[in-house]
Every structure is written in structure tokens, then in C-alpha cells.
Amino acid sequence: MYSDSPAIVVSVDLGTTYTGVVPTTLVYNANGTLSSWGFLCADDELEAGVPGGAKVRREFFKIFMDADTLADAQQQGLTSAPQSVSEAQQFVTDFLRQVCAHVRESIETQIGRRGVGNGWADLAVEFLFSVPTTWTSQSIVNSFKKVVREAGFGVEGPKHSAQVDLTEAEAAAVATLKTSAISFGMGSVFLTVDAGGGTTASALMQVTSSNTAVPQMASLHAVNGVGIGATLIDRLFMRLVQQRLEVCLDAAAHIPPGLPLRLARSHQFRTVKHKFGERAYMQALFRIPIEGLAYSFSHAGLGIENGRMVFTLQEMQSLFNPQIEGIVNRIMGELEWLRTMGHLHQVQYMVLSGGLGSSAYVRDKLQQRFLVHQHPNASDQVAVIPCNDPQLVVVRGPLLDRQQRWESGGATSVLSTRIARASYGVIVQEIYVPAMHPNEDVRPDPFEPSKKWALNQIQWLIKKGDQVNPNAFLVKSFQIRLAATETARAWNSHIVISHNAPSQLPSSMKQDGAYRLCEVMMLPSNLYSTYRQYKHDTDVVASWLAQTGKTLGCTAELIASNSASPANPNLKSARLKGKARKAAKFHAAAEARWQAKGLSERQKYVLALKNFVPLAEFIGTKLSEARVVEIPDVVPAAIERAITVRKGFAQLLQEHGRVLKLESNENHSYFVSVLEKVRHILEPLFKDSWVKRALPKLPKTAATANPFDLLEFYDAPDFDLAGDLTGNSKEAAKGKETVDEGVIVDYEAEDSASSLVAFATLFRDVRALRMQVKSLWAAYAKGELSLPSVAVATNTAINIARFMEEDAADSIRLNRDKKTPKDWALFYCQMAASSQGIDITEPTPGCDINLSAFPMLDESMTISFILLEAWISQARASSEVVTYNGKFGWYDLTIDYNSAPADVKWQQDKAAFLEVAPQFDLMGRFNTTPPDALPEGLCSDMPVEDELLRGLRLLLTRKEKVLPFWLAFATTIHLDVRRVLGRQSEKPFWAMMRYNMAIDDSITQNLEYYENLTIKGWEQMHGDRQLIKLQNEARWFTENPLYKVIESTGLLTSRDNKEHTFLKMHPLFCGLWIHYIRTTYHLLATQFERCWGGILYTGHLYNALCNENLINDAAKWDDMDLFYRLQGGKDKFFVGAAPTERDNYHKQLCMMMGFSATSFIASTRNKTRKLVPTRAGPRSLVAQGKVSSMFHNQYRPSMEGIKLSVDDVQAILNKKSPNPQKTPQATPSQLIHQLALDIEAEIPETSVDYLAMHRQCWDFLRSLEGAVDPYFRRVAGPGWIEREHQLPFVVGYIFSTVLDPVGGESKMTEFLVLAFKVYKEVVAPYRKDVTFFLETIQDYDKMLSHPEDRFLGPMLNELSLGEPKEEEWVDSEFEEMMEYDREMDAMCREIDLEWDEEPEDRIGADFRPNDPPLDLRLREGFGPGESFRDSYAEPGEPVMMSVEAMQRWVRVSRALERNPIAVSQKDAEWLRLVLRSPEFQNTRQRADRERHA
Question: What gap in Å lies between CA 443 and CA 452, rounded to an integer?
Fold first, then answer.
């Protein structure tokens, strides 16, 4: 059996009309809340979908996740279509959420887990989804995957997963091959046609294996789909009814409202539609009753007889025939492809599935069509056959494919090969060859200066149309040269996709047609917890024994997988009694039922401990003659480490286990004895002495007060868990087959006595995390680190601790001792205390603990266990919030905790936790209370919930008896933070409040500034609504409704409570809040800039002003320079290198706007140099803070906690690192430290106020538009800027003047000087107002110049939220700047005079003395300042048409083409005169010359 088989597999086919047998339908209330779904929507029929009804019915929403489909529907006026793709995604999410809840309840009821414990949360559950074949874009599939997760699939348990694999056509083909009654032979070719509700998909398959147990097939052609389905029959039927109603308006008073929709949804019509074509249902007339209409009512015009509407056979056939014709065209397309490609294959079977495919009429018509009109690639006797249960065939396909993979060991899926529907490649570097890499980015080789590399090149791994084997790896070798000091073994790779034809694939990212699909993270191979390292040793030994035994021909019994306890005669079985025994029988019976259905719990290869010695003896006997055996060094090293560790723990159990009544020492001793026997048997087989092997330096086994010292060798530098591992460490961590120095680790050692060792490894890592977190908060207290970076690192440390505890949960909790994490913590404490002669069971007189053992109790986190148990017992006993009455005193900020005696420390810890615990409880209740049940001003969906707050909330609601170790760790961290900060404990609160106010003010200013301005992109994403939501969140704690509720409900204690007690006592929450608010604001602000473009366009203009030497160093725009740096320098801000020549100003701006660079290259295909848009679209500023943004939205209560493993955190850090191969190998605690530094380094990036900068740029563009308006109004017409959101185009108009062959250079000079004048007036006074933290740009320089030292010190102290200081200029610099300004003012005045002297009325251009005479009729229709002739033509040049004349000519010409009758006689006569004029002839000749040039 395949080792990855889950306990439960659920296949879901989200259909357009039906999901399984459930209608894919939703009904919403008027307020937008969900009223009903599926079958329940029938009760809402009378209101939903009927004009005037209060409810709204939604259906067919799945197909509208495709933007093209939605656009077509909206163009056709389909009123029921969603307003946007995001709305369609929301409908799909709402429906799937109901499906998920229904599936959960049904399965939990069947297996006896409903309402018991965690239900199915701890089972391995896999969900399988298929997608419509029409979804060819990967972005749609990715959106669907996101919707699936948001609906709850794959996220309700640590072992839950959701996969989207097969297309609907492929799923139908799999089900056909596996379940059809047809006897397919080797090489048989069949065509599946899945005609559903909204789409019809086809798959052309050839059988490659006729083995009935594991049949296989291969795709001959890429699967295809078209928008044909049963829903179109409904639409045609509704149109037929509506046409009758429109003709007979006299009967409207008698007809129920919404008749077409009512009839289409009626049971009678659905029956006719489904049964149409069957002999018993074929008749000349079809009568469909009209609900709500009297039986006596008849109307000949409407075709109503006795309350029933009558339809003829021909009318019913007219509903089906267009769909059948579409299916025929689809089938013919597949057959024609076979013929065109020269294939001799004969399609023998056409298998129909889906709702429409189940129609007898459709089947008979298709059969007749292909028997009468035969095709060379279709058999003479081609059979059109329906599937069994055609409506369920798509849902069965993924399930049957998954089942076959289990039964074949994971290597044989039903679909042996697939046809790639797109091309996939990887971004690489290639040796630079000028002829092959024109205009490509190049970098020098660091080892060979004479060699250069072309960057961002693409090597295509899979090309569109290739056959791909999903069961085999596609291997492509790449080389990378490392420096002598580099030790990395893995690098990230960017995967790209293209839908171009294989012959037209781009070779680099600078060419059109390819875009980035994803980034593959190659994670460092040594990121394991200590527990995994320990487990790895025993697994290596078990795997080597099993594999070597198999190779030498041992019996199957010796390597049989076994999960029973060791064959130790001294061990007693643990017999369950009472309720526990009854529950075990119940679950065993339920598991047996599921196993009978082929659905079993995840199984692993477990080598029974009793077989270790027999296997070693067998191997020794077989190899005794060889004398020398080449065995990987990792095997003896693993045995030696395991023996040393287990011996040490066995000794400690013998000395201290009696205190806690531990019973597992016999298991430890037995395990050690087995390993020692294996070592004794194998040692003589080696030529070299065992001890001379490359073993790590092991610690001495002498008695010690700390048993965890035995684990220190896992830190030894010569111990590399990965060895020569080339795969992914994450796969190894999950127990999958990986190679470790020649040993395939696919077995686990049976070990039921490792609970103490597992806890020891967990405690060791968590203790290191605790020390690291304390050091981070100490750095914050000193002003070396900021609050958000420390808070994010702290919360992530708790996440990692939770992950590590769950990783070791089976060994810690499922043991014979039945000890809880608190018991093991007490054991450690007792062991450490006994070495100093202290008995922790004897409390100090007058105290509830032994104060002499307080350091041990604190180090083992037992203090937190005691506090949690005391509070949770009272909180669970009351339905109200339990307040603290000061019984143990109050927390005193002035006490120096480190120097205080033990009794004061104990009192302070109790007060610190019990004071804030009621606030935790209250916050948790807010997060789980429905919004309508909360007092006014409170919201139930807080954007931030730290791990401690979440853990306490879940502890209260889930009623779990065992306190998890990670929650005690989180509580300990809370106490540590309060201890470290001392008098500064309220500092995080004030930082949070000041940041909230800063964000609030900026959003207010932006909403007021753009109150009357709109732009489509920002409206579509509801941008203002998101800003207001963020603003309300920032104001939530400012208005402090939490305190008002506490005050009004009498929850105040006897102490003089102040406002914001929760925040002042919980620094971790304050730091996460600042991080969320700041990062969310940054992301929204960058999205705002992407929609409006003010900063980007202004940045292009500012660069031009600097290049023209109009702006000197004294007048530099520091904020804009900062934005250049934030984007990675000018080369990243612009498309390539920043332009320095005037021609390139315009080219770079056009490429930024989304036009291809090939538009500016003269070629035979682009003679006119027409601007050609790229598929990638316009460029925009990139959001900064990659690490910060990935953490910013994971703290919501609805997320139920993100369990981040060490590998997950390393992946996030690699996203930030530009050179991931240089990322140092790190322990969990070192990783947390690095995370804090990375968040700290991103604070300058995310603290820049993009909205404030955008407002500055917009003021600049507004003033500039007013200054240049007179010229461009004359040249381009009054509509050159139609709406204010087009203001950035002013920059494009200015740069385009250089293209004017006559005086272009001088015009650009005039406009750039004018732009500088506006810059000086509008921008210069406010050049440094866009940062929340940075006082000068030099602060950012410091960070850039010292990337290895990310501590920015007090300059990033979040208390420094005042206004930026004005820059103080020294006298010499000030005088130099003023002299420069005076010179520029004089130049601007001269240009202004020349501008003013130009006559505004350009009529004179039409009547210059040396030009040919002008027909006065050509002047008609032009306003003041406009002319027919070009006024900028030099004397003696041929007369040309002006811009205004050419615009009018184009407008009238197009009007004549569209509708000649609508063109006035005056315009038609004017156009006739223009075509005969010399101005038109000269203008056309010049255009022809330029085109040919």
C-alpha cells in the first residue's frame, strides 16, 4: 500500500448547474447574507429571481470566474451575471463553504466522531477537485485553489489537504476507462465528451495498458472545451416563452410574473428536458403546467390550453439542435486534428457523460451523424455510448485515479501521459553573445572578468503540445559556480509560462509572450528540529537493515511493517477499561468500515524492533565470507548516537523516574539492548575499527543535572543530517523517501518508549527560542530594534514551538506513562533540583511552591503551567468573565525583577498574568461573538490576534483537558517580556497609539484630496472602502470601546483601572498591531499608486529635469530619490537603465506604459513604428517589504493560527534574500533572530507614505497641466486631457514633442524649463514629507551601506513620530542655491515673453503671403486659434494639414463608413474638398515617405 494514503478521500465536482446531485445555487437576502443553498433554494423560489422580490438567486456563477466569459455575458446583457470576477469568486466560496460543512457533518457522523473531541480534525483527509477544461489560464486555476482553501477544504486539520489536478475532461476519461463496460484493448482509441451544464469538454485518449487492475491511457491531443451545455437549452426555452409573451400583451394581466423563469425551473420542464429522446416520452405535443394559472385559462396566441403551455416536437428539437451541432463541431475538430497530423488512429468509441451527455436525444443524433457522415479517423462502426451515472463521472475520475496510485505504490496513475496545454521554462543566465542577446541585461562573471552573462534568459523545459508523464520526473541539469567560502547546496528558481505556439516562444523575459508563474524554493536541508534529528538516526538504522536484508533475500516476515509493541516479555499490555475501552471499540469498528471501502489511515513502513537483531544476524551470516562491507558512514554514526542518548535517558529514568511514577525505563533499556546487539553483530564485519569511523564528538555519559546535555552533539559541525542530499528537506521531514549518504530513509524504527526523549528534544529547542526572544526584547528596550520586528519574531517563535510540539506529539502523548507536558516539565525540574538537594514537592512555609526551586520552576516553564491551570479552572466554571481581585497583589513596574528575591518574583508573575487574563478572555469573546450581539462600537473580526491570545481563547472554547506545552511557552514569553521591559512596559502602547493616529491622518487627507476623483481600477478593487476599513481599524483602540464595555458591565476590579489596560500589559499585541497597520497601509498605498500612476510618471519627468541640469544638488527632490532607491535603483524604477538622452525619455515612458520595445525598431513588420502593446501590460511601482507583507495578514482570528515550521520561515526569508545560496544554515532560534533583522531592515521601505508622495506628485501634475494647456489645447484639441485621472499623460505629451521633426528639440527645452518652474513653486518647499520614521535620506543610505548590520538604532525608534525636521543648510550652500534660482528665474521670464508674443489666433497660418491660396470653405467649422494648415511649417515648405484638420478628417471619414445617412451635407462637402486639396496630398505623401523609411 502506498505510504501516503490518507484516512479519508473526498472528491468534489463543482458543476455549473449541479455539484453531484445538489443544485449549484445560492439565494441571498436583501442585506447580502446567505439565505439558502442547494436544494433549500426551492423554498426561496417565490421571492428569489422574481421582479420585486427581496431575495436574489445566484446560479451558473462558476463559469464567471473566467474574466473572458464574464465579459461576454455582460456584453450580451445577461443581468444575472456577477458584477466582477471577485464577486463570482465570492459566490463560489460561499457555496463550497456550505458543501464543506455538509461533508464534514456527514463523515463525522458515519465514523462516530461528530461532537467527539476534535471530530475529523486529527485525521488525514484529502480533497480532490477538477477544473473546467475551458480554464486554460493558470491564474484562474490559482484563483480556484484559493477559493477552495477559503471555503475550508484542506485547512481544518494539520493532515488535511486539497488538490486541484485533473481537468473535467481528463477526469471523465479516467472514470470511463476504469468503470465502463466496454472491453478496451491495447491501443484502443476513444473520445470522451463531457457535456455538462455550462461547458462541453473532450479528451482524445489511447489505451496504453489493458491490465484491468491498473489500466492506463495516454492523451493524444490536448484536452479542449467549449461553452456549450444544458443551461443554454434553458435560455433558449426562456427566450421562446418570452417571444410568445411579447406578441400577446393582452394576456399579461392573467399571466404570473416571471413566467419564463418559472417554467424553466419547473419540475415538469426539467423532466421533459432530461427524458427527451426516450421512446416513451417522444410525442407530437408537450404540455407544461403553469403554476399559479387557473386550469380553465386558455389563450391561443400564447399556446396555453387549460392552464398548460403547449410546445410542439419541432420547438423542443430547436432547443437541443444548436447544442448538438456544437458538440459535433467539437468532435469533428478532434478527428480533423488526427487527420491533419497524419495519425492513422481510428476512434472506436465516443463516450458521453455529463448532464447533457446523458440525453437520449443527444446520443441518438450523434450516433446517426457519424454513421451517415463517416470520417477517415472514425471507425465505420463507431459507437456513441453513455457512461454509467453520467452526472457523477467527473467526480469519480479523480477518486479512481487516486485509488490506483495507492494500490500501485504511488507510481501508476490512470493517465500515463498528458499533453501540455502551455509551455513551461526556467529563468537562467547564458554566456553573453552580442548577436544572440541584443538589448539584454548583462553582468560580468565574478571569476573570469573577460566573460559576461546575459540575464533573464529562458530555457523551455516543456513545450506546448509535448507529451508529459505525470509519474516521472523531468530532469534538467544546470551548473552554478561557487566561491570557495560558499557552502549552499540549493537555490531558488523562477518558473515561467507561455501560451505561444512552440515556434514562437520568447528566449528572454524582455520579449513578449512569457510571464512568471511561480518561484520554487529550494530549502536548506539541515532545518530540522532536534526531535527530527533524533528520529532520523533510528530511521537510518531501520532503513539500512531492511534494505540490506531485502537485497540479500531475507524472508518477508523479517521486514514486515509492524505497529505492535516490542516483543519484550517483561512489558505488560495496557488494558483499557470502562468508557475508554468502549470508545476504542467504536472507533476501531468505524475504522474497519472505512478500510473495507479502501480508505485507511496513513500507513508507514515501520520495522518491528523485534526484527532488528534477527535482521542483523541474517546480514552477518550472509556477509561473513566477504569480511569487508562498504557501509555508509551514517549507519554506525547513527547507531552510536542513538545508543548514547538512550543510555543516558535510561540512567536518568532509573534515578529520577520513581518520583513521577514513570514506567517506561524498561522500554528504554530494551531499546538500548537491541541497538547494542546490532552493533555487536555488525562490528566485526568492518575492516576498520568502528570507533575510527567519522563519528561526531559525543558528550560524556557521566551523571549530570541536565539530561538534555546528551543532545549537544546535534550541534556538532561534522554532523550534517542531509549528507549529500539533493532533494527537498521538507520532503524528508514528512517521512517520504529521501537519500541520506547512500541510505534510502523509507523505514521508521518501532519505538514506543521515546516520550521522554521526544520531550527533551522539544524542550531543548523551545528553551533556545525563549532565550533568543528575551534577547530581542532586551534589544528593543535599548532602542536597538523596533517593536514590530521583535513582535513578529516572537509570535513566529511561538508558532514554531507549536509546530515542533505537534511534530513530536505522538511520542510525547501516546506513551504508556500517560504523562502530560506539565508532567515532563516537572520531571525536568525535579531532576535539576535534586542535583542541588532540593525537593520540589515540599513547598516553602506560607507559600504554595518551594521558593528554593523557583529558578528550576521558571526554566522548565512549570510556573506558567501552574498559572494557566489556576486561571482556566475558574474561567471554565463561570459563563462570565472572571476578574482578578488583587488577592496576590498587583504588578509593580518599578521592581527590578532580576535582583528581587524568589517570593517577590513569584508574586509579580502571578499578578502580571492574573491581571491581564480577564482582558484576554474578554478579547477572545469579542472575536467569537456575532456582530449583531456585540455592544455598539465593537467588532468581532479583529485584524490581529497573537498566539497567546488565540491559544487562551481556544483553550476556553474547546475544553481540552491537557495544556499544550507551546501555550505554556507563550505564557512564559509574556512574563519574560514584562520582566525585560520593566518601567518601559507601556512604551509599546504609546508607540501603537501614535502610529494609529499617523495612519488615520494620512488616510483622512487622501480621502478629502480625492473626494471627487475616481478611476476605474481603484473603484473595481473598492479601494476607498478598504482605506476606510483600515482607518476604522486604526481608530478602534483610539476610541477604546473595550474599556467602555468593561466599565458599563462592572468588570472593573478594586484596583484603580486605567484605560487601555489590555494594551499596556500586552506589548506583543501592540507590536503585531503596528506591523499589521503599517504593512496593510503600505500595500494599499502601492495599489493606489498602481491605479493612478502619479509617482511613476512624475519620476520620469524628474529624471529628465535632472539630466537637463535644471535641478542641482541643492534643489534635489530627496523623496523622489528615495523612491528610486526603494525600487532597487533607477535601473529598476525605469525599464532598463535610466534614460539620459531626449529620445529615450519618450521611449522609456512608452515602455513603462506597456508598449513593446520593438515599437521603436524599424522593421518590415512595423514600418510605421506603431506602438505595439505587450501582454504584460503597463509597469508599476513594486510593493516593498516582501517578508513583512507575507506576515501581515496571518494574525486574524479567523485564520485559527498559522502553524509555521522552520522550513516555512526559511522560505519566507529566502524570498527576501537576493542571494539565497548565501543564507547561512540556522537553528530555529537563529532563524528567529534573522527574521527580526529582516523585518527591521524593511521598516524604512514600508514606512514611506506613498499616499503623501502621490499627493505631492498630483499637485505638481495639476499645476504643470495648467501651464502647458494653451499649447496642447491648440495642437491636440480641447480634449487632450479629458478627465483628471489622465494627468500623468501630461508627461507623455511633453516627451512626445521631441518627435516633432520641426523644432522638436526646442519645444522640449521650453516645456522642461516650464516644468522646472512649476517644480520650484509646487514641490521644492515639501521635498521631504513622506516618511513616518526616516528624518533624512541618509538614514536609508546607512541601511544600504551596512546590510550585514541591520540594527538601525534610535533613528528607527517608533516613538519618533513627530514631524520631520527642516533640513538646515549652511550659508555657502544656501547662497549657491539662491544664485542658481535667480538664474533660472531670468531664463523662465525670457521664455514667458516669447510664449506671450505668439499670437493666440492662428488663422494667419492659412493666409501667409507666400503660400498657395486656400479655399475658404476649408476654414469653415474651425474655432478661434485653430487653422486648417499647419502653422509650424517653415517658409517655403509644402503646405500641410494641421492637427485639428487631420482629427476632423478622421472623425468625418469614420462616420461615413459607419452610417453615411447620419453625416451632414456640410461635413460631407468639406470632406470632398479636403480630398482634393494640396494640403491633404502633401500630408499623405509625407506619411507615405515616413512609412517607407
Answer: 6
Tell me the C-alpha distance between 344 and 53, whole Å. Answer: 59
At 940 the pLDDT is 58
Least confident of 510-524, 931-945, 1092-1106: 931-945
**What pLDDT is stored for residue 414 in this prediction?**
86
Please list the residues that pair with 518 across neighbouring strands: 495
Cell of 603: 500507513
At 1137-1175, the pLDDT tens digits run: 888 888 888 888 888 887 776 666 554 444 455 676 766
Q: Which of 1408, 1453, 1452 is nearest to 1430 (CA)?
A: 1408
Confidence of residue 1364 (pLDDT cuts 50, 70, 90): very low
Using DSSP's 3-state secondary structure scheme, residue 814 falls into coil
Instruction: Give dist(CA 1209, CA 797) in Å, integer.
Output: 10
- Residue appearing with cell numbers 516520550: 755
Give the residue from 523, 1210, 535, 609 showing the smallest Cα distance to 809: 535
Q: Among the residues of 1040-1066, which ranges form H helices?
A: 1041-1048, 1061-1064
CA–CA distance, 755 with 823 (Å, rounded to integer): 12
> What is the reported pLDDT for 1072?
92
Backbone angle region of 1414, left / alpha / beta, with phi > 0 → left and psi within -120 to 50 → alpha: beta
Taking residues 827-856, report their average pLDDT. 83
* pLDDT at site 457: 93
200 contact partners, CB below 8 Å, separation of at least 6: 193, 194, 225, 226, 227, 228, 229, 326, 327, 330, 354, 356
b/e for 1035-1073, b at 16 or more Cβ within 10 A? ebbeebbbbebbeeeebeeeeeeeebbbbbbbbbbbbbb
Best CA proximity match to 942, nearest among 930, 926, 957: 926
| Integer CA distances (angstroms), 648 to 175, 669, 699, 856, 1393, in order | 57, 10, 10, 21, 95
Give the model confidence (pLDDT) of 649-677 as tens digits.
666 666 554 444 444 445 566 777 888 88
Q: Name every residue whose Cβ is closer than 8 Å to that of residue 1027 and which is 6 or more positions away in sequence.
A: 1003, 1006, 1007, 1084, 1088
DSSP state of 447: S
Closest CA to 609 of 565, 572, 643, 569: 565
Compute the distance between CA of residue 369 and CA of residue 348 in angstroms, rounded to an integer.
Answer: 15
Interhelix angle 965-981/947-958, nearest 10 degrees: 140
Q: How many CB atoms lie within 10 A of CB 1338?
A: 11
* Cβ pair 921, 875 in contact under 8 A: yes
Going from the C-alpha of 1222 to that of each of 483, 492, 871, 1172, the distances in angstroms are 10, 12, 47, 41
Give CA–CA dist 1190/1075, Å, rounded: 11
Residues 111-152 have pLDDT tens digits of 888 877 677 877 888 999 988 888 877 788 888 988 898 888
The answer to whether residue 253 scores a pLDDT higher than 90 is: no
Q: d(Cα 420, Cα 423) in Å, to the nearest integer?
A: 7
**C-beta neighbour count of 1183 within 10 angstroms:** 21
User: Could you tell me what percentage of the chain is helix, strand and coil, using 3-state DSSP and rounding each to the nearest 5?
Assistant: 50, 10, 40
228 near 326, Cβ under 8 Å? yes
The DSSP annotation for 497-517 comes to EE-S-GGG--SBTTSTT-EEE
d(CA 329, CA 63): 21
- Residue 585 burial class via C-beta count within 10 angstroms: exposed 0-12, middle 13-18, buried 19 and up: exposed
The neighbour count for residue 323, using CB atoms within 10 Å, is: 22
Say whether pLDDT at 283 is over 90.
no
pLDDT at 415: 85
Three cell numbers written together for 207:
489505451
